[in-house]
TrEMBL record, chain A:
GO terms for molecular function: electron transfer activity; heme binding; metal ion binding; oxidoreductase activity, acting on diphenols and related substances as donors, oxygen as acceptor. GO terms for cellular component: cytochrome complex; plasma membrane. It comes from Halomonas ventosae. This is Cytochrome bd-I ubiquinol oxidase subunit 1 apoprotein. Keywords: Cell membrane, Electron transport, Heme, Iron, Membrane, Metal-binding, Transmembrane, Transmembrane helix, Transport.
UniProtKB/TrEMBL annotation, chain B:
Its main location: membrane. GO terms for biological process: aerobic electron transport chain. It is found in: Cell membrane. This is Cytochrome bd-I ubiquinol oxidase subunit 2 apoprotein. The chain crosses the membrane at residues 7-24, 75-97, 118-139, 159-180, 192-212, 224-246, 258-278, 298-322. It is a multi-pass membrane protein. GO terms for molecular function: electron transfer activity; oxidoreductase activity, acting on diphenols and related substances as donors, oxygen as acceptor.
Length: 469, 333
């Protein structure tokens, strides 16, 4: 079998970016939560807030460290596998991606150390300020990354001359047509991820009856947040969809599994898209609902996939099903948040074991939803790398062979498997140790900029250690 | 843009970033290379602690350099990375393994052996790969019409293997002299014994490379044996640093050996830069051919000029906080 460097490079990029995305999507939400906890402690001086802040800062440190390690690869992949694209788009993407790096370093250099290691060593107000700046920094980082991604989805502010993009307007290129929708959709997704993880861990602590006061506060807070944000995300997602309909109609057609342009298009709940036959083999849908959602009229026109030739179509089943996974999880999230509101009567929300178990399980769902969402938007624009201007095939490194691409794909999977195993294993230990007061062993020298050092949890069980301290 | 050549400014920034990276990550990679040869496990704790507070700050320069190249000299980015495809992967894998080893070795007891291996092999592979990049840069790349057209293993030649081993020896020397400065007792005594041997190895490799390079690249031959005699000042200064290093080690000085090694690296680097200047993608493309649009260079320059002083100040502060000797049992639990 001939190894296809294009397919292997796409798989490699998808793998690395999906693996990496798990971490920042969590830290962005968590950073704001930590800033809020520090603020609440600053204002009320209730030590429960402080315990929560301390615990979640430890978790933040580990996840942030994993994000940095897994992110290094990304900044080189554009060059190794997509050198033609790098060369063509460098005038815009180079500065924008560099600004992300610059922002991240500025943030790390100036404030992360204070947040992680400054407790009790700097005035409380300064510590709070550092927490707010770290949270702000995560937003600025996502601003640049999503600007770059949105530009590839809806390019603007550039002209293509002799195979190279030249920036004609920085503001049009940075704030391209899909940017704000994508940005806010992603920010809300990060908040939902942080919210469900904190709620899930708090629910687990309540189940095993550990530090009940603090964890009730945390769970209650998260449930209020989720009650507002889960429906807000649905509304925002709808706006984002309308923007996509305007700029990338084929993607929307694939999301809906709609092959021919028409009105009264049904919302398909289940279908088996057959790309070769250019139709669905089997479908179950609600009449006219897709037209109604997308155009806000029951007889509104929805574009069809077959309007573009097969070689310009995305892999429909992948887009179609990823979209259903994302929306399905979103609806479950709304239902769970409403259930939380209902159970508040009489305080049952903190006692109902079934609900607490459900919240525990929900911890993984935002990650799945985020990845599914990225699959929709990234595979949905195929075969375009820069929408309508440059295809994946055109952007590929010309000298790349299938064997090389396979070698590094397998290599990165192996490397990340080790990193992920070590990181998740350690994280579960941090969570299991919980919000205990700091052990008195801590005469370690401060180490600024080493995120993981903020979590003083041994890697193995203490009972199994050989006889050294 | 005659009075205000952005491309030139960017070449200086990237050049500065590269040498900052080589000097700073060099000694902590070197400590990793020397790791398995350490006298005992307690020495390894001290060695790792001596670089633990600063290593990831050192690596920020690599990421900054990578992103800066895409922004300012995209041709370098889009030729070097495909041409060195496998090498880049090995370097990144090495850096990742040693990065997580830094964090988990201290938290681990039962599995410490494995983190030791990850730290040593990660450091060694990353150093070798970086040395290979230097060799490949001297050899030049098969580029047609701004696109790399060579094969996947063009970089792998006896010459690049030699530069790879040479940089490993050089980093190990930086690591040994760093340990002389930062430790005492058994570790320091061991580092004193290592330093002269490593210096001889480095000088041997440098000598071979210096004789070999003019045959690899006619442009370099022309540069060194043409009319520009002034550039001989760099190899002379590098040799002076080597002599100073030798004397400082035999007199058991503590700080001087490291400073002299930094000088040795700096002047060798400058010698390499003047050999190729202003070619940045050898053999044919200069910094001006490789540059991005002036608007893009300017847009990015504003941010970088803002952040570099902050990173420098923070780096200086970190080294100040962690000044002095690292002792056994300190900074370790």
């Amino acid at each position: 079998m001939e190894l296809d460097p294009l397919l292997l490079s796409r798989l490699q990029f998808a793998f690395v970016v999906a693996f990496h995305a798990i971490f920042p999507v969590f830290t962005i939400g968590l950073a704001s939560y930590i800033a809020l906890l520090n603020g609440l402690f600053f204002k009320t001086e209730n030590p429960a807030w402080d315990r929560l802040a301390l615990f979640w800062t430890k978790v933040f440190a580990v996840v942030f460290g994993m994000g940095v390690v897994s992110g290094i690869v990304m900044s080189f992949q554009f060059g190794t596998n997509w050198s033609n694209f790098s060369q063509a788009a460098s005038n815009f993407l180079g500065p924008v991606l560099s600004y992300e790096v610059v922002t991240a370093f500025f943030l790390e250099a100036a404030f992360l150390g204070v947040l992680l290691f400054g407790r009790g060593k700097v005035p409380q107000g300064v510590h709070l300020f550092a927490a707010i700046m770290v949270a702000t920094g995560t937003f600025i980082s996502s601003f640049w990354i999503l600007s770059a991604n949105s530009w590839m989805q809806t390019p603007a502010g550039v002209e293509l001359i002799d195979g190279r993009f030249h920036v004609t307007s920085w503001s049009e290129a940075i704030f391209n047509p899909s940017f704000w929708y994508r940005f806010w959709h992603m920010v809300l997704a990060s908040f939902l991820t942080g919210g469900f993880v904190v709620a899930g861990v708090s629910a687990w602590y309540l189940l095993i009856r550990r530090d009940i006061e603090a964890n009730r506060k945390a769970l209650s807070m998260c449930l209020w947040l989720l009650l507002v944000l889960t429906p807000a995300q649905a509304v925002l997602g709808d706006f984002h969809g309308l923007n996509t309909l305007e700029h990338q109609p084929t993607k929307v057609a694939a999301m809906e599994g709609n092959w021919e342009r028409g009105s009264h298009v049904p919302l398909l709940l289940f279908a088996w898209p057959d790309q070769e036959a250019q139709q669905n083999r089997f479908e179950v849908g609600i009449p006219s609902l897709a037209s109604l959602i997308l155009t806000h009229h029951a007889d509104g026109e929805v574009p069809g996939i077959s309007e573009v030739p097969p070689e310009e179509q995305p892999p429909v089943w992948l887009v179609f099903w990823s979209f259903r996974v994302m929306v399905g999880i979103g609806l479950v999230m709304i239902a769970v948040s409403l259930a939380g509101l209902w159970l508040r009567r009489g305080g049952r929300v903190y006692e109902h074991r079934g609900f607490l178990q459900l919240m525990r399980v929900m911890t993984v769902t935002p990650f799945i939803a985020v990845l599914a969402g990225w699959f929709v938007t990234e595979t949905g624009r195929a075969p375009w790398l820069v929408y309508g201007m440059m295809t994946h095939a055109e952007g590929l490194t010309p000298s790349l062979t299938g064997g090389m691409a396979l070698f590094t794909l397998v290599g990165y999977i192996a490397v990340y498997a080790v990193v992920f195993w070590a990181g998740v294993y350690y994280l579960t230990r941090v969570v299991r140790q919980g919000m205990l007061p700091e052990a008195p062993h801590d005469h370690e020298v401060e180490r600024p900029k080493r995120p993981l050092s903020a979590a003083h949890v041994p890697f193995e069980d203490a009972s199994r250690q050989p006889g050294r301290s | 843009m005659e009075a205000f050549d952005l491309t030139l400014i960017w070449a200086l920034i990237i050049g500065f970033g590269v040498i900052m990276y080589v000097l700073m990550d060099g000694f902590d990679l070197g400590v990793g290379i020397l790791f398995p040869f350490a006298p005992d496990e307690e020495s390894r704790d001290v060695m790792m602690n001596s670089v633990a507070p600063v290593w990831d700050g050192n690596e920020t320069w690599l990421v900054l350099g990578g992103a800066g190249l895409l922004g300012a000299f995209p041709l370098v980015y889009s030729v070097f990375l495909p041409a060195l495809y496998i090498g880049v992967f090995l370097m990144l894998a090495g850096l990742i393994f040693r990065g997580i080893a830094f964090e988990f070795r201290f938290k681990s007891h039962r599995n410490r052996r494995w983190w030791n291996r990850a730290f040593c092999w990660g450091s060694a592979v990353a150093s070798f790969a970086q040395g290979v990049v230097v060799g490949a840069y001297i050899q030049g790349f098969a580029v047609e019409d701004f696109v790399y057209v060579g094969g996947p293993l063009d970089w792998l030649t006896p010459f690049s293997v030699l530069t790879g081993l040479g940089l490993m020896a050089g980093y190990a020397l930086l690591g040994a002299t760093w340990l002389i400065m930062k430790t005492e007792g058994a570790v320091q005594a061991w580092a004193y014994r290592l330093a002269p041997r490593l210096l001889l190895a480095v000088l041997a490799v440098f000598a071979i490379i210096s004789v070999w390079t003019p045959f690899v690249d006619a442009g370099v031959r022309e540069r060194w044996f043409g009319h520009l005699h002034l550039i001989w000042v760099f190899p002379v200064l590098a040799l002076a640093c080597a002599a100073l290093l030798w004397r400082a080690v035999s007199q058991r000085r503590e700080g001087q050996p490291f400073i002299a090694t930094l000088g040795l690296f700096l002047f060798t680097y400058l010698g390499l830069v003047v050999s190729k200047w202003p070619v940045i993608v050898p053999p044919d493309y200069t910094i001006w051919d490789a540059a991005s649009d002036p608007g893009s260079q300017l847009f990015l320059l504003i941010g970088v000029l803002f952040v570099i002083p902050i990173v420098l100040a923070y780096t200086a502060w970190t080294y100040w906080v962690f000044r002095g000797k690292v002792r056994p049992g300190e900074g370790y639990h």
